Amino acid sequence: MTTIKDVAKLAGVSISTVSYTLNNSPRISASTKKRVEEAAKALNYKKNGFASDLKRSKTNTIALLLSDLSGPYYSELIQGVQDITTSNGYDLIACSSIGGAQSTAVKFLSEKRVDGAVILAHNISDETMLESAKSVPIVLLDRILDEEHIYLVEVDNIEGGYHATEYLIDRGHSQIAFVSGPADSHDSSFRYQGYRNALQDHHIDYQSKWYITSNFTKEGGYRATKLLIAQQGLPQAIFYANDEMAIGGMQAFRETNLRVPEDISIIGYDDIQLADYTSPPLTTIRQPKYEAGSLAAHLIFQLIAGEKIDRHYKLSTEIIERQTVKDLNTFS
Amino acid sequence: MTTIKDVAKLAGVSISTVSYTLNNSPRISASTKKRVEEAAKALNYKKNGFASDLKRSKTNTIALLLSDLSGPYYSELIQGVQDITTSNGYDLIACSSIGGAQSTAVKFLSEKRVDGAVILAHNISDETMLESAKSVPIVLLDRILDEEHIYLVEVDNIEGGYHATEYLIDRGHSQIAFVSGPADSHDSSFRYQGYRNALQDHHIDYQSKWYITSNFTKEGGYRATKLLIAQQGLPQAIFYANDEMAIGGMQAFRETNLRVPEDISIIGYDDIQLADYTSPPLTTIRQPKYEAGSLAAHLIFQLIAGEKIDRHYKLSTEIIERQTVKDLNTFS
DNA sequence: TTGTACGCGTTATCAG
DNA sequence: CTGATAACGCGTACAA
């Protein structure tokens, strides 16, 4: 292991001179600078990152905490975080929070191995978050928590649910079913809330027979749809609380020889990659993932800079029109 | 920032006692142990990870270097790496190698911030790899490089190409086209090699009109397929060098009213998630990604332990039978 | 149990 | 203005 000492010895200067040189201090003459640099190159010297971080008590890296490194998380969101991090000259590392409070993610936070963190890891408890927030700036993307030192960016799910429903209503649908995610999912219940609000604003009666609870999976969507089909009186349209369930639903319709969108319109939520590949391509609600990620990273840097900022940010959704919704107002 | 000193003061013991206690040394009496632990809790003390790493010159974390954190990399592979890493009591972090030699990934390697690395980052040059391999154990998953200190695990693409082709031949196909990836792709050319070998071994003449170069994208596969259709004499089957191109091909067939597999059989390569969602589901070649990841991580730990191991490992592929290949030997 | 010499760079301070 | 000396960051582990 070659250290700064070795370089100093070879260059015939003191340790501090080497350090100054390598950090481009102007106080070093060109000649010694050259000597030192050559020595460093010759020995293939690389500073020990820890020693450096320890001394400056600053790591120049921020972490992205994910519930599972191998999970199918939002790549656009990561892109957003990455872009901002890089453009601020910081490094980004991703850690998994598998294991909760014992996880690598939490460890990196509490041991001050990073200068800040963007968090998308529902398996870390609120308490742990509060704890960590005391020592390092963090921005949450996966929950709503109104506490000192907790900053978060939220995608407005109520608005998204409202948009989806209104989109169907605008196209002449009035019998609209809602297939929800698991009962304990905040996201799903906010989307449902938006659905109800839209119905109400358009004076459409809510019918409980068209509310089905499912579980955010393809199979769940399939079963929920079969159930809906089995009931007398199919709705004109179905709003699935996520795309996977919508895809399961499309399969159920295919098996039942019901055509989408001719016989029934459907709309999903998320705009996952698959949504563009189904046949027909799925109309859905896109969340501004890139924006959420980049905003989160921006906030981190403002916090690092010691600026005072709001604790809560809300982003809007966008509808992605594809081909699973029929416009009942036009002739065809 | 509360340090070990604060804890020592509060507990009324020396710094070293605190350190021993917190590291569960048996040399500390139960009573002081309790006092120290209480003090640590009261102050909410967490050790500074760097100081610790610096002293022990060991980080207990290994890195997974990816060409792009937001890229659609192999989640199963990551799972493999993660499982082994965790079960060895190490932490895993993922770093991006965007920026090549200046990237976070390379920096973490050279600054000794990790004890080892599994690498899947084609945008890091061979030279940089050789350089890094001197200071830290690394295992490559994305290239073949026969050099001292370079360990790698390879998935046998020649064998995969051979299997795919033979699978078609076994089912009665003899006119088999190959849609390749970009000319500079090693993976693609190995798969092609396997294709040629299989044809030869089964005494089937190779026909250059059935070799089309494309680019691993859906659009590329679409165009290549259109070209094949435009040519007089469609083959009985097409082997696409990756699944995305096969999916593009399926679209081309749909537009041309050719049915898969009734009119033409197709087989892909990779077994991407989408492959199971196409209609009909795509028959393809699966690479043992989980195994590759976990093997790579295993090797890292053997290297860390100072064991002497082989430098080159090769894994086999597996065929995933779905519904895009027709068996011409049976009546239907 | 405790004192203390490390690990390796950074930077304030001082001498030339 | 250049370069060297030394304290320091925080925890670890050996000698006492």
Oligomer: homodimer
Calculate the terminal CA-CA distance of chain A, rounded to whole Å. 76 Å
Average pLDDT taken over every residue of chain A: 92
Q: What is the succession of H and E elements of chain A?
A: HHHHEHEHEHEEHEHEHEHEEHEE
- How much of the residues of chain A is beta strand, in percent? 15-25%
- What Rg of chain A do the Cα atoms give? 27 Å
Helix content of chain A: 40-55%
pLDDT < 50 stretches of chain A:
none
Shape of chain A: elongated
Total strands of chain A: 12
Greatest contact between two chains: A-B, 49 and 49 residues
Class inferred from helices and paired strands of chain A: alpha/beta
Order of neighbouring strands in the sheet with most strands of chain A: 2-1-3-4-5-11
Largest sheet composition of chain A = 6 strands, parallel
Number of DSSP helices of chain A?
12
Report on the structure:
The structure is a homodimer of 332-residue chains. Chain A has 332 residues and is α/β, with parallel strands linked by helices. The first copy, chain A, is 42% helix and 15% strand. The first copy, chain A, has helices at residues 4-11, 15-22, 30-43, 49-56, 75-87, 104-110, 126-133, 157-170, 186-201, 218-230, 243-255, 289-304; strands at 61-66, 91-96, 116-120, 138-140, 151-155, 176-180, 211-213, 237-240, 265-267, 284-286, 312-315, 318-320. In chain A, the strands form 3 sheets. Chain A has a 6-stranded parallel β-sheet with strand order 2-1-3-4-5-11, sandwiched between helices. A 4-stranded parallel β-sheet of chain A has the order 7-6-8-9, sandwiched between helices. Chain A has a two-stranded antiparallel sheet with strand order 10-12. In chain A, helix 7 links the parallel strand 3 and strand 4 (138-140). In chain A, helix 2 packs across helix 3 and helix 10 (218-230) crosses helix 11. The longest helix of chain A is centred in the middle third of the chain and has 16 residues, at 186-201. The model of chain A has no long low-confidence stretch (mean pLDDT 92). Chains A and B meet through helix 4, helix 5, strand 2 and helix 6 of A and helix 4, helix 5, strand 2 and helix 6 of B. Chain A binds a DNA duplex (16 and 16 nucleotides) through helix 2 and helix 4.
